[in-house]
Each structure stands twice: as C-alpha cells, then as structure tokens.
Amino acid sequence: MLISRIFQSKFSWKMSENLVQYIIVRKDILKERGLYFIMAESCLACSSIHLNSHEDPATQKYFSDIDNMHKVVLGVDNETQLEKLVKDLQSKDIVFELRRSEENIPTCLAVKVYEKSQIAPLVKKLKLLR
Question: Tens of pLDDT along the chain (130 residues)?
Fold first, then answer.
C-alpha cells in the first residue's frame, strides 16, 4: 500500500497538473470578521462544490491525485467586485458555489475544478490573497 502510494504520487503528477480550483474571498469580510470566519466559509464553499460536482470527470481526476491538488485563493475588495465576478462566471457557464453568511451576505465563492486554460483567463485580473 505504501509503495503503491509512493509510486502513484511520484509518477501521477501529470494527471492533475493542469487542473485547478479557484477560491475567491472578500477581503473586506476578512478584515471585518477575521481569518477563522472566512476560512470556514471558504471550506464550506469548497465542500459544497465538490459534493455537487463529484460526478464531473475533472473533479474525479483532481481527487484521484490528492497529493497534487492545486488550489488558488484570490481576493476581491468588496461585495460589488464579487457580484461582478459572479455575473462573469455565469455568462461563461462556469460552475461555482457562492457562499453567503447567516445574514445573507455573499462572503466567498469556490469554482468547480477546471482545466487551468479554461478558467484562468476569467480570474486573471484578481490578485492572490495575502
């Protein structure tokens, strides 16, 4: 089992090298509510999109190589920017999960796993969350 896992990990990197998942969070919510809150919201968004897209071939391929999953966390400044991104993603038929707080305020979103070439152009203007 261990040898199989090492072999698989060493030689399966090509399987998911082009697959990526983007998570976009609101920086104003991060500042207002804290890291714990936005991390929890992001995890819930990721869990939801994974559950809802578990039959998708890209998602299955992504999870078959768990040691080489690639996620990118980006930030938007406020609700207006997040809502604009939502509209842009919808216009391109991109599947995502928008997470809302208990007060029904959009906090973050997680995009389904896609080939990087398909999704990266839609988020290229956003900056890494730091």
Answer: 444 444 444 444 454 569 999 999 999 999 999 999 999 999 999 999 999 999 999 999 999 988 889 999 999 999 999 999 999 999 999 999 999 999 999 999 999 999 999 999 999 999 999 8
> Model-level pTM?
0.85
| Domains of the chain by residue range | 19-125
CA max distance for the chain: 50
Compute the distance between CA of residue 118 and CA of residue 92 in angstroms, rounded to an integer: 10
Question: Which CATH number is correct for 19-125, 3.40.1490.10, 3.90.199.10, 3.30.360.10, 3.40.30.10?
Answer: 3.40.1490.10
